[in-house]
Design goal:
The chain is an alpha/beta fold. The protein has 15 helices and 14 strands. Helix 5 packs parallel to helix 6, helix 7 runs antiparallel to helix 8 and helix 9 packs across helix 13. It starts with a strand and ends with a helix. The site of adenosine-5'-triphosphate has 20 residues, from helix 5, strand 11 and helix 12.
Length: 387
């Protein structure tokens, strides 16, 4: 068995939400670890996970995808005696030295005041023992290569090598949102960021066969699956938008194509969102990244819906977005070459500063809302190619 210690985001552990936070975080962790046969114990704001050795790699992968923790580490649980604590610190010290650390520091927290040494005392005794056991190792108070943590609670826990957690809020603490998911780099990152604020997500993809092929759809399915690893599964709705695109192409000035298409996407997404009890829409728009994302055009796009529209990338540049896409594993899928419908339909000279009144006038003239309805007339499921 391997023991892990996880630290929930303490900022949120205060006030009335504390219990909900801990309950949801523990449920999420249990769901994500369900294949591993690991056991989870929650005590005094700490999560302890006992995991069979064979599943350790999978568990560590899960901890790296769990929103709501600031850090995690493999830990040693020992008796609450000075001897056992010091011996475990020496083991941790040796392991850190072997991993390449040349300086270390001990950090002790004594929650159980009955333990004979106070925090300072633990640091001194354990530090001396490590220095004696590992020749060449040096103590360093700030900027040490390795930090050995000692926590005296219902047991004594010793751990080094703490890994950073994703932080954020546990998925499910902030309701559900509808992510407009294209096959690009941006929208998956937008979904990930909202998941990190506690949102569960559904996703909708507007497919335009035969202009967009099965490969493009498959790519979006994979993206939804990857975001789902952080957001406890994402249900993907696929809407066939070919007819809408054709109507726009035939019935409006070419310069307006993309803006009108976005408006139709927003309106349709909102309809599915309401049926799925989503409280907002989420897009991957980033201010002025492309012609359809000037502030004027974003105003046009948003003018057809009343649910709040969250655009978590609005102030980020492409490099920062790409870095996150790489970190979360969507980038290699996003850059696969299959075009999405919008690329095929984008005009040569798109309007840059659309006027929302003009946009609405053109949009209404297309009588798209009824076209949108005619897809299935009824439930979101009828619209789905169902995933
Ligand atoms: P992305 O990288 O997410 O595709 P982008 O910078 O390419 O974004 P656009 O293609 O202009 O930007 O799309 C803006 C946003 O509109 C996307 O981030 C996404 O939320 C939504 N969107 C665009 N095309 C689709 C589609 N086919 N299905 C669902 N949502 C879409
Ligand atoms: Mg795109």
């Amino acid at each position: 068995m391997v023991l892990y210690l996880l630290k929930p985001g303490e900022l949120y552990l205060k006030g009335g939400n504390r219990d909900d936070f801990v309950r949801i975080l523990s449920r999420n962790l249990a769901l994500m670890l369900r294949e591993t046969k690991a056991r989870i114990n929650v005590r005094h704001g700490r999560f302890y996970v006992d995991c069979p050795d064979a599943a350790a790699a999978e568990a560590e992968d899960v901890f790296g995808r769990l929103f709501g923790i600031t850090g995690w580490a493999r830990a040693r649980k020992v008796d609450k005696t000075t001897g056992a604590v010091v011996a475990a610190c020496v083991e941790e010290g040796k392991a850190a030295w072997e991993a390449g650390a040349r300086t270390f520091r001990i950090e002790a927290r004594r929650a159980d005041k009955r333990f004979p040494l106070n925090s300072q005392g633990i640091c001194v005794e354990a530090g001396d023992a490590v220095l004696g056991a590992v020749p060449g190792f040096k103590a360093k108070m700030t900027g040490a290569d390795a930090v050995i943590h000692v926590e005296i609670r219902e047991n004594a826990y010793i751990y080094g090598g703490e890994h950073a957690g994703l932080r954020g809020l546990p998925a499910g603490t902030a309701g559900r949102g509808m992510l407009l998911l294209s096959g690009g780099i941006d929208s998956p990152v937008a979904g990930f960021l909202m998941a990190g604020r506690g949102m569960r997500l559904d996703a909708v993809y507007f497919h335009a066969p035969p202009y967009t092929g099965d490969d493009a759809l498959h790519k979006v399915e994979r993206l939804a699956e990857i975001i789902g690893r952080y957001a406890l599964a994402v249900r993907l709705h696929v809407v066939s938008f070919t007819e809408v695109e054709q109507r726009i192409k035939n019935g409006a000035p070419a310069a307006w194509n993309t803006v009108l298409l976005r408006m139709a996407m927003m309106e349709t997404a909102e309809k599915i969102a309401r049926r799925r009890r989503c409280k907002c829409l989420v897009t991957g728009e980033s201010l002025s990244q492309v012609a359809s994302q000037t502030v004027e055009n974003i105003a046009c796009t948003g003018s057809v819906v009343t649910l709040p529209v969250f655009r978590p990338l609005i102030g980020m540049d492409k490099e920062a977005i790409t870095r996150i896409a790489c970190q979360i594993g969507t980038y290699p899928v996003s850059i696969l070459p299959y075009e999405d419908c919008c690329v095929l339909f984008s005009p040569e000279h798109p309007i840059l500063y659309g006027d929302p009144d003009e946009a609405l006038r053109l949009y209404r003239r297309l009588e798209l809302p009824s076209a949108v309805k005619s897809f299935g007339g009824g439930t979101a499921d009828e619209w789905n190619m169902d995933h």
